[in-house]
Specification:
44% helix, 306 residues, 2 domains, 11% strand, globular, Beta-lactamase, binds glutamic acid, alpha+beta
Length: 306
Amino acid sequence: MSVHLEEMLAACKPYTQQGQLPSYIPALKKGDPKHLGVCLLSCDGQLIQAGDCGVQFSIQSIVKPILLLQALLDNGVDAVRAHVGVEATGKPFDAINYTDQVLDSQHLNPMVNMGAIAVCSLIRGSSYQERFHRLLALTRLLAGEDARIQVNEDVYRSEKASGNKNRALAYLLKTYGIIQDDVEEVLDCYFHACAISTDCVGLARIGCVLANKGCQPGSQDPIIPPEYARFVNAILTTCGMYDGSGDFAVRVGVPAKSGVGGGIMAVVPSRMGIGIFSPALDAKGNSLAGTRLLELLSRELNLSIF
Ligand code: GLU
């Protein structure tokens, strides 16, 4: 793998000044907007990195594909699909300005908050604490290194105290019978999940398992069923970058998931996992310099799957 990461990083550094740190989770406002790091890990195990690669950050929405994987492992595809949809818009083909009058589970997408909160309720465990610990264990298995995956309790407490919009969404799910459990317990699991933290290398390692048909880099023994990796990658392609997924598909062209902590995990099927960190976000909540860096990498290494 030959690529001039340092030069690309330097070219993208100015973009760190154009984004904003999110303020709706107060702990995230403490981040350093100048950080920019990248790690590439190929399916045959080559790792290259540059910039602020060792800085830990909360993965936030990047936990959503891992939540989905845990739900698939616990319930299988049919049960998961009966509970949440897989459509990017959930709108009919002739919708002009569609306003939901009812909440239909097939309109929920596991890569956006309401769908992900619903997915928390699909994880098995005798308590929500146990469910979260099973999710954490899966995250560590995917990253292949326990110590690289931590939980940022400060971020967890901050979101738990301020996350009223997610609270409202979860109560709506309960109102419509999509979740049956205690709303605060489900939310506690979701907030803890979003506060899982890692660095660029950890993200690249998780992305690499998704890229490598469920196997660790350099291995051909799946640690998760390859069909689940394919299922998750398909959803990441259509909605992993929120309502910026179309733009991202055009500019970068690989399955990816961003989080408001500034991380992006990209999956280049059969080639590599990529972990990026740069906490200043664009208007859609995606890392601004990080997306630009992925665009340059995609061009240089011909990564687009399209
Ligand atoms: N914990 C964040 C929230 O629920 C995750 C959002 C994100 O990373 O996009 O608002």
